[in-house]
Design a protein that fits this description.
This protein has two helices and 13 strands. It has 184 residues and is an alpha+beta fold.
């Protein structure tokens, strides 16, 4: 208990110092004069051309769902940002119906996954073993390394996951068969 109290006090002290306990060095006289003539005290000057891109808001219930590549069992994907088939950042949300998983496959890009709804079951390797998967709950995160064989999906409930990466991307099934299979 005493160790945890020490850790808590230490972390709290560091957080307070990082949030304003230390002050920045005073500006040089020439910088101070230039700053006072261009902006009122306490004002923030935004970079020119800000923002380069507009703000985007996407409502989950208004997403456009399409069958996922290699899909025959109801798995759907909604593209939130970017285009996974082209170079650049992408963000998708995948919906796995209960009882459906991907089979062992890999991607040419590193992917980052956060569970949104339901329980997402995951495993690594080239052998499909749904009963030995590791469950991840909403808010949990997983990183898929580029070229790393894995499989994942839903067992007993529908599951939604957000997946991001830098395209172009696609799935290559390890044994060349179908991408999706029944998990039970």
């Amino acid at each position: 208990m005493r160790v945890w109290r020490f850790v808590f006090v230490s972390v709290s002290t560091l957080a307070m110092i990082g949030c304003g306990g230390a002050s920045a060095p005073a500006p040089a006289a020439s910088e101070s004069a230039a700053a006072s003539s261009s902006a009122p005290s306490g004002a923030i000057t935004l970079p020119s051309g800000y923002p380069e891109r507009p703000f985007v808001r996407v409502e989950f219930d208004k997403l456009t769902w399409r069958p996922t590549e290699g899909n025959t069992l109801g798995v759907e994907t909604a593209v939130v940002e970017g285009d996974p088939s082209k170079p650049g950042y992408y963000l998708t949300i995948n919906h796995f119906p209960a009882g459906v998983m991907s089979r062992p496959h890999y991607h040419p890009d590193e992917r980052y996954v956060i569970v949104l709804r339901g329980t997402w079951y995951t495993d690594e390797g080239e052998v499909f073993r749904p009963k030995e998967t590791i469950p991840l709950k909403p808010g949990d995160f997983m990183r898929h390394p580029r070229g790393g064989p894995h499989y994942d999906g839903a067992l007993d409930e529908d599951t939604w996951v957000a997946i991001s990466g830098y395209g172009p991307t696609h799935a290559t099934v390890v044994d060349g068969g179908e991408l999706f299979a029944r998990s039970r």
